[in-house]
Amino acid sequence: MSAYTVIPAVLLWITVVVRLLVPVKNAAQRHFLVGLIVLAIGCTLEIPAVGAYLQERIVGANTVHLIKHITVVLAASAIWEVARHIALPQPEAATHRARRAAITLTAVCAMIGMFLLAPVHGEPLPGLTNAAVGEPVLLAYWTAYLAVLAVVVVGIVRVAISALHTFPPGALRTGVLWMGAGALIAMAYCLNKAVYLVTATAGLTSDHADLMETVQALLLALTVFGFVVGCLWPIAVRWPVIRHIIAYTTYRRLHPVWQAYLRGEPGIAFGATGRPTPYDVELRLYRRVIEIRDGMLAARAYANPGHRGLAVREARRITRRDPDLVGEAAWLETGRRAKLRGLEPSADSQVGISGGATVTDEARVLTRIARSWSIVQTVADRIDDMTDARKTST
Fold first, then answer.
1. Does pTM surpass 0.85?
2. Signal peptide position in this chain (predicted)?
């Protein structure tokens, strides 16, 4: 019994139980709960011992494969609705919802009907793909399954792309992007399955049917993994263990920025600290964010306001990732360096700087700066070189 099949199933069932204790307030929460339940069922069936037990004792031969495919379709459909609710205005998210549900249920009913008619009830099979070669009923089964799954995952990918361009960084954006990643893998799964069925039926494939079955099973497992992470991530970030891990990672990532501003303004530090522990890492992160922001405010007094636009333009020439934020950070870096050189404060030190409304938002902004800290240094070097060149020429 592998941990990679058991752990997701356990986490999903725990989440389902917790969510069942919370009143469902709207359609999005209802779809979210449905998605969690069917994903939990699908992950449970992926546990070999569970699948074998059900196939031998409770359901007929190969019925487990049908149930897995149905859970994938229902989970993808529910996730599509959740992603639409998150990424789109409510009137637009609800548009044609009944039609989408009808299409999904029709496809599921067609799959059940085709499965009952297919000659696959005699002995257990590792999958239904190879059995479909030359079998019209099973080919119709796969057509219904792949068609509805392709429509749904394309919809999820479109929503994820929209979220990538419009959502601010955060747990919801990360969750939707994970859903989109799972949907992209599902598209590869659908394409791989369709190409194999067509070529195998035409007699054009080689003798690697078992390998193809393994590849398709892997793609399907990765699809489910993306959906599971996408559903659980907005919830998981509130779990103490995950919260501490995120806080510690952010704390360490901000260290170079904090260290630089501490050299420029030693008074920003609240006090000496040792190594962070799981019990105080969130408090330490809170303090680090405040200390960095205080250091930025101190450096702002020494930054030439006329160089801010120049720094932003230089950043736009170097990078496409947060160029305005990188340029502003580079401008503040020139102020920090000016203070270290003992220069006088600038005449106008009240220029606003970017930040967040909360400490969490501030941490996200500073993390984006930390990720581009080397570029910040490069832009600041260029601004200093230009300033020195002007002084030399005059």
1. no
2. none
